[in-house]
Amino acid sequence: MSIKRGVLLVCIVIFLCPVKSYAEKIVVIDPGHGGIFSGTCGYSGNQTGYCEKDANLSVALILQNLLSNSDIDVYLTRTTDTEFSPYLHNKEGESIGGDLEIRINKANEYVQGENDNSIFISIHHNANSTNPFIRGIETYYYDGLNHFNPKWPHDPMQLTYLGDNLRLAQTIHPRLVNFLGLPNRKIHNDESFYVIRNAQMPAVLVELGYMINRNEEKIIKTKEFQQKAAEALAEGIKRYFQAYDVLDNNNQKIATFDEFTSALIFMGLVEESVKIFNKDTQEFVFERPSSEVLSVN
Ligand SMILES: [Zn+2]
């Protein structure tokens, strides 16, 4: 049977296949820092008292509001100016009981059992100790395969989301650059930030401009900028979920595609693929009816 004919036959039986509700879509928004941990205070924060933690929280709260009418469940690690622990590292220099550990544990608890259909977005603004003129937007994801550092161990589950991390970064980053009009300082996979390497779900950390830059700090503090940043993130989050997972018999994901037809063609070529899951509607939209139908000569 030709590939074309195989795909056609599969298409014909799609509508006969069972459709089953599966899971929730969840985003955990993490406004970086908070309370005694101010993050960078940028160019003028030491005088004005407005630091990174404040800008991070403002964007996060607008984003929460923008997504409140969507079919995505939204959780925030914090909704007020507060820390999770009085320290980042204990006396032994470990993260146990520290602010970042408690923060990501909280995020992971929100999504327990729904990890594959959840995402984690940590919102930050940037600083640079040597260049006060630096500008632009960066997006980070954890790449534990190519940039593993034994000094910074990760949650084992995070490794399974490497492809999703990249897709999430590639979905969100260009929207941030376009919406905000700041220089594109690219997507990076070579930093092992604690929260993204310990998220039990696909995760990115975004740096929405440099507060150390006098002009950029001024822009970052405006409601207009914060609204646009939240809109870019909301659009990116919604787009991320508009995808199709191809799963094996044990519901393990084999691949993800933006288009249903691409997922279907993949199924025709890869024998162990048996189901297609629509991440947007959170339903199985196709199950392999029989091995004959998909056999390709
Ligand atoms: Zn930060």
Automatic annotation (TrEMBL):
Tell me where on the tree of life, at the top rank, the source sits. Bacteria
Q: Which SUPFAM superfamilies match?
A: Zn-dependent exopeptidases
Residues passing through the membrane, by range: none
Sequence ranges assigned to domain MurNAc-LAA in this UniProt record: 105-238
Q: Which UniProt keywords apply?
A: Hydrolase
What's one GO BP annotation on this UniProt entry? Answer: peptidoglycan catabolic process
Pull one GO CC term from this UniProt entry: outer membrane-bounded periplasmic space
A Gene Ontology molecular function term for this protein is: N-acetylmuramoyl-L-alanine amidase activity
Q: Which Gene3D superfamilies match?
A: Zn-dependent exopeptidases
Output the PANTHER family linked to this UniProt entry. N-ACETYLMURAMOYL-L-ALANINE AMIDASE, N-ACETYLMURAMOYL-L-ALANINE AMIDASE AMIC
By what name is this protein known?
A: N-acetylmuramoyl-L-alanine amidase
